[in-house]
């Protein structure tokens, strides 16, 4: 039987696999902010259900059945985030916790109808790809951290690494949102901060940490005369 906590664990394992390639007990402790004993007990439960394979000192991996559940949960989460932002006008820093609850609601039919109602979006409000009904997604974008951009580069924000509320509120305070095109005007070697220019001509200096969490696409530079 699937439960909220089991789905949360499977989704966390999937996301850690995407980010780090391998999943340890400690990485789950950190991801889920829980105790080592709780992780150990849940992994035994998931293994007994046939959803994960777990070997001591070798880490955890999802089985085919476990990955299907994890992808379905992730798909619902990201579709609900789109719904909350586009239809209910929540801001992008408000929707994560709502989606955490809603991802456990409904079945495949509800999810497919929600997907169709939203026009089959490919990305959520934070720029993360949304799996389709077959659990597949294609993210062909050539993205890099904004910290890698050089002076003169024109970059467009396509996603964020950190979708936490405090970071998104920080971007809001800088009038930075998905799709915004910025130009790198200056880079400081001392602290690796960069001065960026907005379309209206205004400028601001962003820290290395802020830039590292912005996923951008480098656009073709303006022709210099």
Provide a concise account of the structure shown.
The protein has 225 residues and is an alpha+beta fold. The protein has three domains: 59 residues, Winged helix-like DNA-binding domain superfamily/Winged helix DNA-binding domain (Arc Repressor Mutant, subunit A), CATH 1.10.10; 60 residues, Winged helix-like DNA-binding domain superfamily/Winged helix DNA-binding domain (Arc Repressor Mutant, subunit A); 76 residues, Ferrous iron transport protein A (FeoA) (SH3 type barrels, Roll), CATH 2.30.30.90. β1 and β2 form a beta hairpin.
* CATH architectural type of the largest domain: Roll
The percent of residues in helical segments reads 40-55%
Radius of gyration equals 20 Å
| Name of the top-level CATH class of the largest domain | Mainly Beta
Structural class call reads: alpha+beta
Indicate the CATH topology of the largest domain.
SH3 type barrels
> Which ranges are low-confidence, i.e. pLDDT below 50, for 5 or more consecutive residues?
none
Strand content: 15-25%
CATH superfamily annotation of the largest domain = Ferrous iron transport protein A (FeoA)
Number of helices: 8
**Whole-number total of structural domains:** 3
Strand order across the largest sheet: 3-8-4-5-6-7
Which sequence of SSEs, written as H and E, runs from N to C? HHHEEHHHEEHEEEHE
Question: pLDDT average, as an integer?
Answer: 93
Shape: globular
Tell me the distance between the termini: 66 Å
């Amino acid at each position: 039987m699937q439960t909220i906590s089991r789905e949360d664990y499977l989704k966390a394992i999937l996301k850690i696999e995407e980010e780090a390639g391998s999943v340890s007990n400690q990485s789950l402790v950190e991801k889920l902010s829980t105790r080592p004993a709780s992780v150990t007990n849940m992994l035994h439960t998931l293994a007994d259900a046939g959803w994960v394979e777990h070997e001591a000192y070798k880490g955890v991996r999802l089985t085919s059945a476990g990955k299907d559940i994890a992808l379905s949960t992730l798909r619902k989460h990201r579709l609900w985030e789109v719904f909350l932002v586009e239809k209910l006008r929540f801001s992008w820093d408000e929707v994560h916790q709502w989606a955490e609850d809603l991802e456990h609601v409904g079945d495949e039919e509800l999810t497919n109808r929600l997907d169709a109602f939203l026009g089959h979006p490919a990305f959520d409000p934070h720029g993360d790809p949304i799996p389709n009904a077959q659990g597949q997604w294609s993210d062909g974008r050539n993205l890099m951290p904004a910290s890698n951009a050089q002076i003169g580069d024109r970059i467009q924000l396509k996603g964020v690494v950190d979708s936490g509320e405090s970071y998104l509120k920080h971007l809001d305070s800088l009038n930075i949102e998905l799709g915004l095109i910025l130009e790198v005007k200056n880079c400081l070697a001392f602290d690796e901060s960069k001065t960026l220019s907005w379309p209206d001509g205004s400028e601001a200096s962003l820290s290395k940490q802020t830039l590292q969490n912005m996923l951008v696409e480098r656009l073709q530079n303006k022709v210099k005369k």
